[in-house]
Design goal:
This protein is of the alpha/beta class. It contains 8 helices and 8 strands. Catalyzes the reversible epimerization of D-ribulose 5-phosphate to D-xylulose 5-phosphate.
Length: 228
């Protein structure tokens, strides 16, 4: 499985989003945090900004919806140009139906879990998804410290993915940096959202390359990745 690095524009300069997207053109995806000030206590951006960003960059957009009523709004982000749309299971009314609708519209369907939400009740939903996001901080704000207590949850999720023989990406988001990315990769993650660690660096593109190298190195020795 290939390592993917997704810089989060939550840590970018919102007045220069097109330039900030170009600054990380070596990234796999551009992670776009959509917050509604209801599901999480912060307000960021919406469909019009995603439409503009999709026109301004060739890097595909990975939209993470931290919003209420994703069943209603998520399909609009596919129409706006997102290549992957993540909804929170805690907010979704019908997660299977929503995942199928996102896929039917042409995007990858992803489901996110807050730190306190266990993975086990959703084992049967995994085949309906293209990616699962394990939040390693409480969603709502960038720059938070990584929660080490999420590492066992990442391992359990990877075990479930392997158990069912799924080609499901496992993303982590929150506090991912040079100091934490290797532990995440060893635990089972293969897609890494990094905000401050990329856009807070002097050279964001070099930061992406450095994080990728670290994750690839850790994955080579990870028990879960042997045989992939």
């Amino acid at each position: 499985m290939a390592v993917q690095i997704n810089p989060s524009i939550l840590s970018a300069d919102f007045a220069r989003l097109a330039d900030e997207a170009k600054a990380v053109e070596g990234a796999d995806w551009l992670h776009v945090d959509v917050m509604d000030n209801h599901f999480v206590p912060n307000l960021t951006l919406g469909v019009p900004v995603v439409e503009s960003l999709a026109r301004a960059t060739d890097t595909p957009l990975d939209c993470h919806l931290m919003i209420e009523a994703p069943d209603r709004w998520a399909p609009q982000y596919v129409e706006a140009g997102a290549g992957s749309v993540t909804f929170h299971v805690e907010a979704a009314t019908a997660p299977v139906r929503l995942a199928r609708e996102i896929r039917a519209k042409g995007a990858r369907a992803s489901m996110a879990l807050r730190p306190a939400t266990p993975i086990e009740p959703y084992e049967d939903l995994l085949p309906e998804l293209d990616m699962l996001l394990i939040m390693t901080v409480e969603p709502g704000f960038g720059g938070q410290a990584f929660l080490d207590i999420m590492l066992p949850k990442i391992r359990r999720t990877r075990e479930l993915i392997s158990k069912h023989g799924l080609e499901l990406w496992l993303q982590v988001d929150g506090g991912v940096s040079a100091a934490t990315i290797e532990r995440c990769a060893e635990a089972g993650a293969d897609v890494f959202v990094a905000g401050s660690a990329v856009y807070g660096a002097e050279d964001p593109a070099e930061a992406v390359r450095g994080l990728r190298a670290q994750a690839e190195g850790a994955m080579k020795s990870a028990a879960w990745a042997c045989g992939h």
